[in-house]
């Protein structure tokens, strides 16, 4: 495992510190066991509580899927895939997310419009061609509330459009992925409706949509444009509940330096060289997600227009 190029080489941690990764297996058991338990007892629970738990479980599963594609809890890609394909969070097929995220890990291309698949910026010329309304939407998406409320609405349609656009371009890479995802999704929606009385629309837009919103808060400002790739990746010193929900991916610079490092080892690696990581990312630091919500609820955190990168 080779860290990205930076001013000072970070220490080299072990990617698999346990032969049996019981912390990740425990998270897997809690997520799927908890989801099943809540759907089985949904009619007995306060509606607000049951919906909140299902929302948090769906968000947590997205964090788990991130761990799975990076080689945890096993080194067998097939097993990890089987652990991630069940669509609790509904909107993203595991295989599409996996391939997109792996492409995102080209640090030298981070934030570049049209190249970084997880980028949130537009080219200056493309911005000039937008209508006033489209520009307003772009600016709103650079606020925390805009990210939460509108972010999924602007990311879900392009992904689902590939169901049709792929075959039209004679690209059948994800035909099997979509067939499996849709079959599992229909089965899941039938189950929760029959067992819990949760309608498909309720699950999709009352649980899965806000779950994706919460997941997208993590990535709201985890990258910024900068000439040095190491300066583009944030360290967010989030509180324990956020760290657990996002499986320590808030320490994003650590993750990009060592993408194979298990989530439960990230905090100790960060603490052992905190000043070094902050030096390497040029002090790109946020003191928690509460800070983002308070300061940038309605205020754009930066411009949606990519400034270009000097080389």
% residues in beta strands: under 5%
Rg computed from alpha carbons, rounded to a whole number of angstroms = 20 Å
Distance between the termini: 26 Å
The overall average pLDDT, rounded, is 94
Q: Strand-and-helix sequence, N→C? A: HHHHHHHHHEHHHHEH
Low confidence ranges: 1-10
Which structural category do the helix and sheet elements fall into?
A: mainly alpha
Strand order of the largest sheet: 1-2
What kind of sheet is the major sheet? Answer: 2 strands, parallel
Q: Which bin fits the share of residues in helices?
A: 55-70%
The number of helices is 14
**Number of DSSP strands?**
2
Tell me, briefly, the overall form.
globular
Walk me through this protein's architecture.
The protein has 311 residues and is mainly α. The protein has a domain at 22-225. It has helices spanning 22-41, 47-69, 77-84, 94-104, 124-128, 132-140, 144-168, 175-196, 200-218, 240-245, 252-257, 266-272, 274-280, 289-295, and strands at residues 235-236, 285-286. Strands 1-2 form a two-stranded parallel sheet. Mean pLDDT is 94; it is low at 1-10.
Key traits:
single chain; 311 residues; mainly alpha; 14 helices; disordered N terminus
Task: Give the helices and strands, then pairings.
Elements: H1 22-41, H2 47-69, H3 77-84, H4 94-104, H5 124-128, H6 132-140, H7 144-168, H8 175-196, H9 200-218, E1 235-236, H10 240-245, H11 252-257, H12 266-272, H13 274-280, E2 285-286, H14 289-295
Parallel strand pairs: 1-2
Helix pairs in contact: 1-2, 2-3, 2-9, 7-9
């Amino acid at each position: 495992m080779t860290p990205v190029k930076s001013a000072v080489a970070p220490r080299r941690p072990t990617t698999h510190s346990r032969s049996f990764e019981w912390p990740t297996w425990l998270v897997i058991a809690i997520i799927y066991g908890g989801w099943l338990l809540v759907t089985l007892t949904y009619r007995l629970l306060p509606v607000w509580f049951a919906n909140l738990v299902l929302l948090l479980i769906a968000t947590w599963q997205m964090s788990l899927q991130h761990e799975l594609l990076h080689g945890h809890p096993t080194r067998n890609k097939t097993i990890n895939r089987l652990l991630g394909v069940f669509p609790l969070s509904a909107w993203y097929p595991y295989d599409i997310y996996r391939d997109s995220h792996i492409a995102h890990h080209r640090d030298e291309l981070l934030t570049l419009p049209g190249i970084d698949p997880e980028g949130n910026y537009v080219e200056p010329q493309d911005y000039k061609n937008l209508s006033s309304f489209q520009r307003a939407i772009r600016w709103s998406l650079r606020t925390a509330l805009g990210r939460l409320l509108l972010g999924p609405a602007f990311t879900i349609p392009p992904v689902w459009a590939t169901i049709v656009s792929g075959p039209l371009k004679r690209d059948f890479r994800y035909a099997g992925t979509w067939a499996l995802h849709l079959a599992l999704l229909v089965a899941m929606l039938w189950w929760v409706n029959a067992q819990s009385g949760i309608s498909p629309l309720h699950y999709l837009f009352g649980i899965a949509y806000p779950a994706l919103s919460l997941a997208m808060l993590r990535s709201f400002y985890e990258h910024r444009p900068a000439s040095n790739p190491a300066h583009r990746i944030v360290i967010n010193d989030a509180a324990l509940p956020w760290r657990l929900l996002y499986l320590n991916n808030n320490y994003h610079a650590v993750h990009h330096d060592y993408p194979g490092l298990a989530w439960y080892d990230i905090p100790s690696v960060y603490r052992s060289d905190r000043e070094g990581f902050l030096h390497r990312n040029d002090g790109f630091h946020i003191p928690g997600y509460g800070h983002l919500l308070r300061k940038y609820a309605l205020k754009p955190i930066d411009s949606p227009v990519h400034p270009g990168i000097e080389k």
